[in-house]
Structures are given as structure tokens and as C-alpha cells.
């Protein structure tokens, strides 16, 4: 019924599930980020003129991970086993795989392939939820912009090195 709040237990479950999404995405991203710090290898690379300062990455990814988690949570509430949720899961896997490949294995070529796929899957997620949950789609727009920039940066690093 419109205008009636959900029962208290149901509301609590919704917010606990949001907390789980935040822990999964933020926790996973932070864990992978700390486990695969760029280090001396990355510092020694020739970088393009548009390479941002190192301090910008942690706050940018923290904000993006919150947006990714909220979009995933909203999608899961709507249809936990649906196509959009599977696409959301695929982007998270690609996201979590990229750092270990580029910073851990120091493989810029395969990392570029992964990040191009990631950008495509992000766009696919936006398209898949656009008509049903415009907010979830918009939450992924800054993510798409950042990953597009990161794709250009990855390609430039590969070209210069």
C-alpha cells in the first residue's frame, strides 16, 4: 500500500543488506587496494601529462565503491537473481581483478583488456537498469567516467612503457 512504511523487521533487513553490500564492495576494494599497492614499479614508469596525483586515488575509489554498493543493493532488492544483478556481479569481479593484474603481476596489456571489458560491463549495467531504476543507473555514471579515464591512463602507460 502506497504511503505505508514497511514493518520494522523488514526495514531492518533492508538496511542490514545495504550494510553487507557496503562491506563487500568497500571491504573488498580496500583489501585488494592495500594488497596490491602500486609501489616502486609504478613510480618508475613514464607517465602521461594527465596522470593525477597519487593521493586522489584512495578518496575517488572510496566514493565510487559506496556508489557501486548502493546501486548493487538497489538492484538486488528489485531482483536478486536477475540479469542486472548478474551484470553488477560481473563488473565487481572485473574491478577486483584489475589491480592485481596491473600492480601485482605488472601486466599492463592484460590489465588494459580487463579494464576495457569493465567499462563495457559498466555501460551494460547502466543500460540494463535505466528504465527500472534510474537512480541505480545514475550512481554508475561517475564510475563509468572514472573507469573511462583509468582506461585511457592504462593505455597511455602501456604505450609509454
From TrEMBL:
Its main location: membrane. GO terms for biological process: tetrapyrrole metabolic process. The keyword Transmembrane helix applies. Keywords: Membrane, Transmembrane, Transmembrane helix. The keyword Membrane applies. InterPro entries: TspO/MBR-related_sf, TspO_MBR. It is a multi-pass membrane protein. Belongs to the TspO/BZRP family. This is Tryptophan-rich sensory protein. The lineage of its organism: Bacteria, Pseudomonadati, Pseudomonadota, Alphaproteobacteria, Hyphomicrobiales.
